[in-house]
From TrEMBL:
Swiss-Prot/TrEMBL GO biological process terms: transcription by RNA polymerase III
Region annotation Disordered: where it falls in the sequence: 28-47, 81-101, 114-182
Protein name: RPC7 polymerase
Compositionally biased intervals (Acidic residues): 166-182
GO terms for cellular component: RNA polymerase III complex
PANTHER family, per the entry: DNA-DIRECTED RNA POLYMERASE III, DNA-DIRECTED RNA POLYMERASE III SUBUNIT RPC7
Family: Belongs to the eukaryotic RPC7 RNA polymerase subunit family.
Length: 182
């Protein structure tokens, strides 16, 4: 009969981990405070000339990082009054500010891009046509010597072959049993 509109569900206090004799928690009737209580108060900020200088550097470094890259650079218009030109020049001087880099870590310091110096390429040795002719003549001479040596070797081989044939004719043939068995 559980799902037919009857209130048959019973609530037991033991299901939510309270005993029969245990006191139930008090009902909270007011909202929590907007901020938690500060038991440990923060250390007061240091004030002085050095701190102000470092704060100015921090703001100066953060400023360009937050600026969008697509801002147009202001164009120079010739001022009619000389007084306004002086004011503009004073503003430019105030805008250009270089921090004391001795007080800052090296990582923050802006680096100039050094151009890498490439090693000079060696030029190919282009020899004169005269030296080429000399080299060609030497090569031809060496080829001729090689040919002459080959001819002399061939002649020696021919004379040895003739002598070898004569020696073979004088010696009787040796009897080879293996040839006759087959």
């Amino acid at each position: 009969d559980r799902g037919r509109g009857c209130a048959s569900f019973t609530f037991s206090i033991e299901a939510i981990c309270f005993g029969k004799d245990a006191a139930l928690p008090d009902v909270i009737s007011k909202p929590p405070p907007p901020f938690p209580s500060t038991e440990n108060k923060p250390v007061p900020l240091k004030t002085g000339e050095d701190e102000h200088y470092m704060l100015a550097i921090k703001q100066d470094l953060r400023g360009p990082m937050k600026m969008p890259y697509f801002l147009a650079v202001g164009e120079k218009h010739q001022a009619i009054d000389r007084y306004s030109q002086k004011e503009q020049d004073n503003e430019k001087e105030q805008e250009t500010w270089t921090p004391d880099w001795r007080r800052l870590p090296r990582e923050i310091k802006l680096k100039k891009a050094n151009k890498k110096v490439c090693a000079k390429t060696k030029k190919a040795n282009i020899s004169d046509p005269k030296s080429n002719l000399v080299a060609i003549q030497k090569i031809e001479e060496l080829e001729k010597k090689d040919e002459e040596e080959e001819k002399s070797k061939d002649e020696k081989d021919k004379t040895k072959d003739k002598k070898g044939e004569d020696d073979e004719a004088e010696e009787p043939e040796e009897y080879d049993e293996e040839e006759h068995e087959e």
